[in-house]
Design goal:
Elements: H1 2-19, H2 24-60, H3 69-102, H4 104-114, H5 118-139, H6 141-154, H7 173-182, H8 190-212, H9 215-227, H10 235-249, H11 252-269, H12 274-288, H13 298-306, H14 310-339, H15 361-373, H16 378-400, H17 404-444, H18 447-458, H19 463-478, H20 483-493, H21 495-499, H22 505-518, H23 527-536, H24 540-551, H25 557-563, H26 574-594, H27 604-619, H28 625-642
Protein name: TRAP-type transport system permease protein
InterPro entries: DctM, TRAP_DctM-Dct_fused
Keywords: Membrane, Transmembrane, Transmembrane helix
C-alpha cells in the first residue's frame, strides 16, 4: 500500500503540474487525503519494524528477568492499540477526503449561502483531529498543542475570560469546525496548504527522486574525498552537505537527524570533540532553512503571501544566506585550527568521483533556467526538472549498461524515487494543514492584528526597540517548530508590526524568518542541538554553548538588512558596496566569539576591538558609509597583520 500510494501521489502531483485539471482547492483535498493516509501507513510500518527488532533482541537475550515481562506486555498492548488507531486514521483520511470530493460543488458554492449539513460538521471535525494527530506524530507535541490551544482560545468557553489583548467574544464549535475545515478554509488554506501541495510538493518529490538516483550518496562520497584533501578535513564538506539537504527538508531537526547521522561520526573520527561536532551540524542544518531556492519550503509560502514573483524571493534570500554560511564556514575553520583538529596527512583530490554527479547537472540547469530566466512558477519548473532527471537517467543507463539487470535497476530506482518523494512530503501535509487551522483561529479572533499593534506600542514606535522585541518574539514562536510552521507564525504575528514602521515587506519577512530559524539552536528548546547532541553522545548544554558561538553572527546579521536594504533589494552600486563591508563585519564577529584570528588566540581587549569594528562594518551606514568603510578596512588590516610575523630590528639580542 505504501508503494502504491506513494507512487500514485507523486504521479498525481506531476500530472496536475502538467494538466491543471482541477482547481487547486479541489486538488489539495485529494492530496491531503492520500498524503495523510500514506503518512499513517508509514508510521504503521515503522511501528511493526520497531516491534520486530525488539522481539528479535528479546529472543536473542535468554537472560531476560521475569519482572521485565510486565512492562513488555503493556508496551505490546499499547503498540497494538496504536496500530489499530493508525489503520483507523488512514481509513478516515481517505473517507473524509472522498466525502469532501463528492460534495465539493455543494460545499464550495451552495453551503456558504444555504448552510451546512450535520454530516459536514462531523467530517470536518474528524479531519481536524486527524491533522492534529498527524502533526503530533510527525513533529512532536509542541505544534499539535499550539493548534489545540488556538482552537480552545477561539471557543466562547474561554474567550471572554482572556486578559487584555487576548480577550474576544469567541465562537461556537460549529463555527470553529466551519472555519477550520468544512468551509474549505483552515486545513484547506489556499496559501499554506495550496502552495504546500503544489510548489512545495513538487520540489520535495524531486529531492526524493534525486536521492533514489544516488544524489545523497554522491554528496557524501565527494565529501569524504574532499575531507582527505583539505587541512580542515570534512568540516566544510559537512557544512555544505547539511546546507544543501537542510534547504530541502523543511525542518532543522529532521535535517540534523538525517545528514548528522553521517557527518557527526565523520567529524568525531577526525578528532573533533563531540559537543563541537554536534554543534557544527546543528548550526549548518538550521542555516540550511535560509538557503535559496527552497529555503526549507518557506520561499514558496513567502512568494505567495507577498504576492511577488518567486525569483524575487530567491534574489532576496541569496545574500543573507551567503553572509550566514560564510560566517559559519569561517567559524568552523577557526575552531578546527584553534584546537588543532586539522588533518596532517592530506592526499590529492580524486576527480573521478565527480563523474557520478554529472547526471544531476542537466536537471539543475533546467531548474535554474526555468526559475530565473523563463520565470516559470515553481510547479512548472519542478515538472520540467523531474522530466529532465528521468530522461538523463534513462540515457545514462542506455549508454553505460544495456543489460536486463541494468534496466531493471533503473526502473526500480525510478519507482523508488516516486515512492520516496511522496513519503518525504507526507509528514509536511499534516503540519501545513494544522498551520491553516492556526491561521484561521488567529485571524478570525483578531489576535494577529492585536499582537502587531502591541509590538509597536511596546517599542514606543522606536525602530530599534521594535526590532529587538520582534527578534525575541520570532525566536519564541519558532521554538521547536518546523520551517513552514515557524515562518507562518512569525509572519502573521510579528512581521506586520515591523512593516508598520516603514520597513519594506520582503525585508521584514526575511528579518523575522531568519530569527525563527535560529530558534533551532537557541536554548532552552534548541531542537536541532538536542538531536545533534543525541547523535554525537554529547552534553546538551555544552553543545548549546558551542552552537551559539559558531552561529552568533546570525543573531546580528538580520539587523544589517534593515540598515542596508540593498542586501535584499539589489541595486547598483549600493549592493556592491554594502555586501563586502557587511561580509567583513561578520568575519570580525566570528573572530570575537571564537577568540582566534587564524594565527593567534586573542585576549578580551583584542576581541572587544574586533566587536566594535564589527558593529561599525555592519551598521555604520546609519551614520555614514564612510564609517562603515573605515571599520571594514581596519578589520581587514588587523587580520592581515595578525597573520604575519612582524620582525623588528633589535638592539639587544635578548630583548
Amino acid at each position: 500500500m505504501i508503494w502504491i500510494l506513494g507512487i500514485t501521489l507523486t504521479l498525481y502531483t506531476i500530472y496536475y503540474a502538467h494538466s491543471r485539471m482541477l482547481i487547486r482547492l479541489r486538488y489539495s483535498n485529494i492530496f491531503l487525503g492520500i498524503g495523510i493516509c500514506l503518512f499513517y501507513l508509514v508510521q504503521l510500518q515503522n511501528l511493526y519494524e520497531d516491534s520486530s527488532q525488539k522481539s528479535a533482541m528479546s529472543d536473542g537475550d535468554q537472560s531476560t528477568v521475569t519482572v521485565d515481562a510486565v512492562p513488555d506486555v503493556v508496551l505490546e498492548r499499547w503498540r497494538a492499540i496504536d496500530a489499530v488507531l493508525l489503520v483507523l486514521g488512514a481509513t478516515l483520511a481517505v473517507l473524509g477526503s472522498l466525502y469532501i470530493e463528492l460534495n465539493f460543488t455543494r460545499l464550495f458554492e451552495d453551503a456558504p449561502v444555504l448552510g451546512y449539513e450535520t454530516n459536514d460538521y462531523i467530517v470536518g471535525g474528524i479531519l481536524m483531529l486527524l491533522v492534529i494527530d498527524a502533526t503530533r506524530r510527525a513533529f512532536g507535541n509542541l505544534i499539535a498543542v499550539v493548534t489545540i490551544v488556538s482552537i480552545l482560545y477561539a471557543h466562547h468557553w474561554f474567550a471572554p475570560y482572556m486578559p487584555g489583548l487576548l480577550n474576544h467574544t469567541g465562537f461556537t464549535w460549529e463555527q470553529i469546525i466551519r472555519e477550520g475545515a468544512v468551509s474549505l478554509s483552515g486545513i484547506y488554506h489556499d496559501t499554506v496548504v495550496g502552495i504546500g501541495t503544489t510548489w512545495v510538493a513538487i520540489f520535495i518529490m524531486f529531492a526524493g527522486i534525486a536521492k533514489a538516483y544516488g544524489l545523497m550518496d554522491w554528496v557524501l562520497e565527494v565529501g569524504r574525498e574532499l575531507g582527505t584533501t583539505l587541512r580542515t578535513g570534512v568540516v566544510q564538506i559537512a557544512l555544505i552537505a547539511s546546507m544543501i539537504m537542510g534547504s530541502i527538508t523543511g525542518s532543522a531537526a529532521a535535517n540534523t537527524a538525517t545528514t548528522g547521522s553521517f557527518t557527526i561520526p565523520m567529524l568525531k573520527e577526525q578528532g573533533i570533540r563531540p559537543d563541537f561536532a554536534a554543534a557544527m551540524e546543528s548550526v549548518a542544518s538550521s542555516g540550511g532553512q535560509m538557503l535559496p531556492p527552497i529555503m526549507g519550503v518557506a520561499a514558496f509560502l513567502m512568494a505567495d503571501i507577498l504576492g511577488v514573483q518567486y525569483v524575487q524571493i530567491i534574489q532576496a534570500g541569496t545574500i543573507p544566506a551567503l553572509l550566514f554560511y560564510f560566517s559559519v564556514g569561517v567559524a568552523l575553520h577557526l575552531v578546527v585550527t584553534k584546537h588543532g583538529w586539522t588533518e596532517t596527512d592530506t592526499t590529492p583530490f580524486d576527480k573521478s568521483v565527480l563523474v557520478n554527479g554529472l547526471k544531476f547537472l542537466p536537471a539543475l540547469a533546467v531548474l535554474i533556467y526555468g526559475l530565473v530566466v523563463m520565470r516559470l512558477t515553481p510547479l512548472s519548473a519542478g515538472l520540467y526538472t523531474i522530466i529532465t532527471m528521468w530522461i538523463v537517467a534513462l540515457a545514462t543507463t542506455a549508454i553505460s549498461d544495456r543489460s536486463v539487470a541494468g534496466v531493471r535497476t533503473e526502473i526500480y530506482n525510478t519507482l523508488k524515487g516516486l515512492r520516496d518523494g511522496a513519503i518525504e512530503m507526507a509528514p509536511l501535509v499534516g503540519v501545513l494543514a494544522a498551520m491553516g487551522i492556526i491561521i484561521e483561529m488567529l485571524v478570525n479572533t483578531g489576535l494577529a492584528q492585536k499582537v502587531s499593534t502591541a509590538l509597536v506600542s511596546m517599542g514606543a514606535g522606536a525602530l530599534v526597540l521594535v526590532l529587538v522585541f520582534a527578534m525575541i518574539a520570532s525566536i519564541l514562536f519558532g521554538l521547536g517548530m518546523p520551517t513552514p510552521a515557524a515562518y507562518i507564525l512569525v509572519v502573521i504575528l510579528v512581521a506586520p508590526g515591523i512593516i508598520d514602521l516603514g520597513i519594506q515587506d520582503i525585508t521584514a519577512h526575511m528579518f523575522v524568518f531568519y530569527f525563527a530559524m535560529l530558534s533551532a539552536i537557541t536554548p532552552p528548546v534548541a531542537i536541532a542541538v538536542a538531536v545533534g547532541s543525541r547523535i554525537g553522545n554529547a552534553d546538551f548544554n555544552k553543545t548549546c554553548v558551542q552552537a551559539l558561538r559558531i552561529g552568533a553572527p546570525g543573531f546580528l546579521i538580520p539587523y544589517s538588512f534593515i540598515v542596508n536594504e540593498s542586501l535584499i533589494y539589489w541595486s547598483f552600486p549600493d549592493t556592491l558596496i554594502a555586501f563586502p563591508m557587511v561580509l567583513v563585519g561578520t568575519v570580525a564577529l566570528v573572530i570575537t566569539t571564537i577568540g582566534y584570528d587564524g594565527s593567534r588566540r586573542l585576549n578580551y581587549l583584542f576581541r572587544s576591538v574586533f566587536l566594535v569594528l564589527a558593529f561599525g562594518a555592519l551598521y555604520g551606514a546609519v551614520v555614514s558609509v564612510a564609517l562603515q568603510g573605515i571599520s571594514a578596512f581596519l578589520i581587514a588590516s588587523l587580520i592581515v597583520i595578525g597573520s604575519k610575523e612582524i620582525s623588528l630590528p633589535l638592539t639587544d639580542p635578548t630583548e
